[in-house]
């Protein structure tokens, strides 16, 4: 049990800015096995965003509540995935072959492609969540946030099973994750990633909308695999972040879908 706690806290430390106990320690082997809990970390992040949204909505207009909830998730994660999304768009937008794409991704500067992309995806999240509030109610919106953050991290975690890591430099921040995820570890991630969908169903969200959201995430995952395999031959940490961001939006769009 202690070992599993270490893996969970290692995942929490890797994906967020949240504090973890000092006894957890640091090791590449520990982080190698932490990926099974990435979706559980997604639940934690979703609960933070949902909790802030719920509390803010008690005294503030809905639009401000949604905006504060989004800000809370950005603070909790340090915009970790958003940064990966921005870098990925810069790389694929400005690069013409594998080495150039990887070089641009590693550049800490944000280019015009990345700036436009991160602005658009944040606006899309905000508008989608604002539209979901009257449709699902406040409690339903909190459940949707948790589901989106968990399921989207299942999408990015799945790429660890489907692709190989492509960077060769030892300084890459995701180098400890450069291995294939076992099916047992992926299954653990899938349990936490899919569980919040059951909460949505229990809260009365139409099953068809939940299935649409799930289908869009699956489509995002396999399109990302195909695209990355074609252009890079595998994944990087930035690509995992980009996949998570697109899959999160896919969940919101699926729940907004008119039936």
Key features?
259 residues; mainly alpha
Helix content range of the residues, please?
over 70%
Query: Structural class, from helix and strand content?
Result: mainly alpha
Number of domains: 1
Number of E-state strands: 0
List the secondary-structure elements in sequence, H or E.
Answer: HHHHHHHHHH
- Low-pLDDT segments: none
Q: Return Rg in Å.
A: 18 Å
Mean pLDDT, as a whole number? Answer: 92
Spatial gap, N to C terminus: 44 Å
Q: Helical element count? A: 10
**How does the major sheet shape up?**
none
**Shape estimate:** globular
Proportion in β-strands: under 5%
Commentary on this structure:
With 259 residues, this protein is an all-alpha fold. It has one domain (2-16, 26-256). The protein has ten helices and no strands. Helix 9 packs antiparallel against helix 10 (237-256). The longest helix has 51 residues, at 112-162. It is globular, with a radius of gyration of 18 Å.
Short description, anyone?
Helices cover 76% and strands 0% of the residues. The chain is mainly alpha-helical and 259 residues long. It has one domain (2-16, 26-256).
What is the topological layout?
Layout: H1 2-15, H2 28-34, H3 38-57, H4 62-77, H5 80-94, H6 98-106, H7 112-162, H8 183-202, H9 207-231, H10 237-256
